[in-house]
Design brief:
Layout (H helix, E strand, L loop, with lengths): L13 H11 L5 E7 L9 H14 L4 E7 L12 E4 L21 H18 L5 E5 L6 H8 L3 E6 L13 H20 L3 E3 L2 H11 L6 E3 L14 H8 L7 E5 L9 H13 L5 E5 L5 H11 L3 E5 L6 H7 L2 E4 L16 H8 L4 E3 L5 H4 L6 E3 L4 H9 L4 H11 L7 H12 L11
Parallel strand pairs: 1-2, 1-4, 2-3, 4-5, 5-6, 6-7, 8-9, 8-11, 9-10, 11-12, 12-13
Length: about 425
């Protein structure tokens, strides 16, 4: 074994990439696995898309050989230069895939069976990788610790901390599964030499919830595909999508679930419609467990809301371009300490496309969104949305705010990939010869 590569060895830029490749020596390639036990591979959905974007960025760094692994591969669409594996090839797939969640609704017995499948995967596959990232899930750290046992570096990558205080609201079966998951995750995360999280708020929550040493928790935010998410002509986008040039269009892109809670907005919109029909169209792109309930509510009240379902990722920027205002609602009470822990990729994509954002004043959003300049920070309740709908910003004002939004400093996925490597390399010792 030779000494670990120093963290300062991985600056940004093409020259640095060449230095990084030569630093491995003798054509040596760093084999990196990004395992996603809590999700199936469904490229149009956020968690899958984020992992694939990071893997694509890793593949562009000379000397890096990335592989992704999901519980099951629903759609085998991966970037060039990235390999894909299934963690549980014999495992079940849900009859209806609303999103890429792989653990929703399973009982304790199935969860334990899945852990046994992961152990089989670990014995079969982990020894051929140098570095294993494990995206956070119910049993965070499980695979990362098995990588350590195999003599490799295992790094959990977290974007959420469960709020144990809310467990009393769940049924006994789910409470048991979540409590079991928390205890297992706490044991493994405490043993990890490094844990990567998306935000400072999440780091504080991780330290408090799991008792981690703060110096072993590194913050690396999500990146952005700047080739895809960039300012485009609104007129051209509306022409292609069949949206009237003069329409006031609000847009939400993402999962329709409890975390991204649309109820306050929809109820406020219903109250507004009863008084006077608002001059706007609300377009929702995405799927999720709440879609049916939302559609019933909208249909019964004849609200100006259109559901488009899940669309290919490449089509999302055109919809953002067609919008006047983009939405990112969050119920912050589902997060530990009541503070948003996500790095909120959708907000970054909205801003990069030159569109102002309406969202909550929590976590990293306080830094990304400047009230009245590139967006609006609203309380997550019906009253706040009613007030906003009563005196909505004009299209001209939103267009001007969009120009400001487009100038928001935002990292790329290449920045994120280098950040992961920069923090991991000091903990990594490579064999002196290729395996």
């Amino acid at each position: 074994m030779h000494a670990a590569t120093p963290a300062s060895f991985l600056p940004t830029g093409a020259v640095a990439d060449r230095e990084w490749a030569s630093g491995l020596g003798g054509g040596r390639r760093l084999r990196v696995l990004y395992a996603v036990p809590g999700h199936h591979l469904l490229p149009a959905v956020g968690p899958s898309r984020n992992v694939l974007s990071l893997a694509r960025a890793l593949a562009r760094i000379p000397g890096i050989e990335p592989t992704v692994a999901f519980r099951r591969v629903v759609e085998p669409v991966v970037p060039e230069g990235v390999a894909v594996l299934e963690l549980d090839p014999e495992g079940p797939l849900p009859r209806e895939l609303r999103d890429d969640a792989a653990m929703r609704g399973i009982g304790v017995g199935e969860a334990l069976a899945y852990l046994r499948a992961l152990d089989r995967f670990a014995r079969r596959e982990l020894a051929r990788f140098d570095l294993v990232f494990e995206k956070g899930w119910l049993f965070s750290g499980w695979l990362a610790q098995r990588a350590v046992r195999a003599g490799r570096l295992g790094v959990p990558v977290e974007n959420f901390v469960p709020d144990r205080a809310r467990l009393h609201r769940e049924g006994w079966g789910k409470r048991l599964r979540l409590e079991l998951g928390f205890r297992i995750a706490r044991r493994h995360l405490r043993r990890a030499p490094l844990v990567i999280v998306e935000t400072e708020a999440l780091k504080r929550a991780m330290v408090a919830a799991y008792g981690l040493a703060a110096e072993r928790v590194a913050v690396v935010g999500l990146g952005l595909d700047r080739d895809l998410f960039r300012p485009r002509s609104q007129a051209e986008a509306r022409l292609r999508l069949g949206i009237a040039p003069e329409a006031m269009v609000w847009l939400y892109v993402g999962v329709l679930d409890a975390t991204h809670d649309l109820w306050p907005l929809l109820r406020a919109l219903a109250a507004t419609v009863r008084r006077k029909p608002p001059e706007l169209e609300l377009h929702l792109l995405g799927e999720g467990v709440r879609r049916q309930a939302y559609e019933t509510f909208v249909r019964e009240r004849q609200l100006p809301v259109r559901f488009h379902g899940r669309l290919p990722h490449a089509r999302v920027p055109e919809w953002i371009a067609a919008a006047d205002l983009c939405l990112a609602p969050y119920d912050v009470s589902v997060f530990a300490n009541g503070e948003l822990g996500y790095s909120t990729l959708k907000v970054r994509e909205y801003l990069a496309c030159g569109r102002p954002v309406a969202t909550v004043a929590s976590g990293v959003l306080r830094e990304l969104v400047r009230e009245g300049e590139n967006g609006f920070l609203l309380a997550h309740d019906e009253a706040a949305w009613q007030a906003f709908l009563a005196a909505p910003p004009s299209r001209a004002r939103l267009a001007a705010m969009g120009e400001v939004a487009a100038r928001t400093p935002l990292d790329s996925w290449e920045d994120t990939a280098r950040g992961y490597l920069r923090h991991s390399l000091p903990h990594l010792a490579l064999p002196s010869e290729d395996r």
